[in-house]
Every structure is written in structure tokens, then in C-alpha cells.
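Worked example 2:
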Amino acid sequence: MYLFFTPSFKKLSILIVKKMGVNLSRILSPKKINFRFLSNKIIVFDGYNMLYQFLALIRTPSGELLRDSSLRVTSHINGLVFRLTKLLEFNIRPIIVFDGKPPEEKAETLMRRVKQRKKAFKEWRKALSSGDYGKAWSKAVQTSSLTKEMVKETKTLLDYMGIPWIQAPSEGEAQAAYMVSQGDAWAVGSRDYDSLLFGGLRLVRYITLTGKKFRRKEGKWYRLKPELFDLNEILSSLSLSREQLIELGILVGTDYNEGVKGIGPAKALKLIKTYGSLEELIRRGKVKIGFDYEKIKEIYVNPDVTKNYKVTWGKPRYEKIAEFLCDERNFNPGRVKKVIDRLKKFNSRRHFKLIDKWLNHR
């Protein structure tokens, strides 16, 4: 694979802005699990969430993206094929869901993140010119931009691999949560907590192969293990209803609103448990809300999802995979052979029987 310097931010095609999600980490206690625990389970992944991880972290030491001989970015493809086929080795069966049109309430947040990314890009270039590669890399991970072309080619590659993908009408995490609630998948795979607010019964975070995460503020890596969150257990342990959990998230801040100043997850939890609802908090003058929180609440309570989807695993088209990765995108043939070997092993009759048994008896 060829490596090239990243071109100017202004020359990139139409961008798809990264999602951040509501931060509930300080009040939720996950169950640490391993890959073996997830064996024979169907996990529906937030596609944009996954691709952004690859674009952020699969870079050269100076922060440059991986590219082919035509200067097309390949970091996202690299991460996708190797992570998904590695998951298949653990008998974990993935479904990928892609975002559709975001709710109108998200517009301001998206514009703010575009500005933040442009700022990070300038800081990255400045650090590179001064030879500070450590700082350059930490800034580079904040500049990740997913284009429509990248999403299109990702879907094409998934088709070649025989891995199903679903196009959501709006938020991918909402669609993923719905699919879990319908029994078409066991859990949502994402680093964000939003699927819990959308009603996803289970969330698994950090399904990563390296077991590491880069902490930007510290400029360091730390080890990770997969985490399982069970919605019913969370609501029981916090003594909250799902509606109250949503209102707690609104106080902290979501993709659709900024949080109330001075209120973090712990304080929001205390307020909701003490007064029962966001409406009561406002009525008593405990918080001031400068937006229509009911509209935001409705996004989570009744999300825009499609029921017209079909989850079907196809037979991999090995020649197409090799042609796409090696001939078109300059991947190393030896590495591509590993991908194909993993697919062949997983797509044995035994694995199909395992997953069919799960679907028929869920």
C-alpha cells in the first residue's frame, strides 16, 4: 500500500460529520467481557462510528492517512476488512448500519464540529512543519473526514464479503437499537452510548483488535477490553425509567443540544431522581432550558427507523475482493490472502448452521 501526504482540507469532497453522542460514562458500570463471550452472537455495528475510528487511528507516525497510488484514502478500508474478518474468526457475525439524513436539531452541532476539524487540521500542519510529530499525530486524529465516496465503496466491499448492511433513514444508532429490540441482533456495537437512549437492549463498546485507545489530551495509549451494557440492568440499578434516562442525557448534552452548564452525568442523575422529570426541574426553576427539549426527547422515544430491511449473509465473492483490494487499491496480496482465508473458514457450513440455529430460536 502506498503512503502519501494528505491534501488540503478544502479539496476534500462532501463530508459526513463525525458523531460524538451523549457521555454517560461516569454513571454507568459496564461488565467486562472478552471476545469468546461474544462468540455465536450477531452484533449490529454503527458503520460511521466504526469508519471514523479507522480514519482517526490508521495513520502514519506523522498523522498522514494511508492512500493508494491514485491518492485515494485507504485507512478506512484497511481497518474494515481486517477487523470484520478477525471478528468472524471469533464466530461473531456483524451487520453494518449506515446513517441517513440527520434530524434538523443536529445541524448546529454538525457545523460546530466542522469548524473544530478545520482548526485541528491547521494545527496538525503547523506541528508537521515544526517537526513535532507527536503533537502532529494527536491533532491528526481530530481531522478525520468521511466522504460519500468512502461510504459507497465500503458498501461495495461489504457486498463482496457477503456481510449485510442496512441503510437507516436517519440515525444509524437508532436503527441498530431497533434491530436489537426486534431480536435481529444481540447487541449494538458502538463506542457511543446513544443506542441505550434509543432503546437498544444491549450495547458492546470497544470491540477492537488491538485492545488500545488513544487519549488525545494526554497523547497516550491505554488498554481496553470489550464492555457490555444491559439497558434493563442499567435502568434497574439507577432506579430510572428509559424516559428519565433520556432526560438525564439531555441535561448532560446530546448530538441535538448542548448540555446545561455546570451539570455533568452525576449531577444530572441526582436531579432527575430527586425531582422526577425535566419538566419538574424547569417548573421549580432548578434548571433553565433554552431549547425545545420535548423535540429532542421525541427523537429518542420515537426515532425514525425502517422496518423494511432484510438481514441476509451472502456468499463472498473472493475474486472481486482480491480485484478491489489488490488491483484497484494497491493492498499487499499476502495480507489480502489472509482476509480471504478468514472468510473461507468462517463461511463453512458449520458456521452457517450455528447462526441459523440462533436466528430460529431467538
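Residues 250 and 257 are 7 Å apart (CA to CA). DSSP finds 15 helices and eleven strands in the chain.
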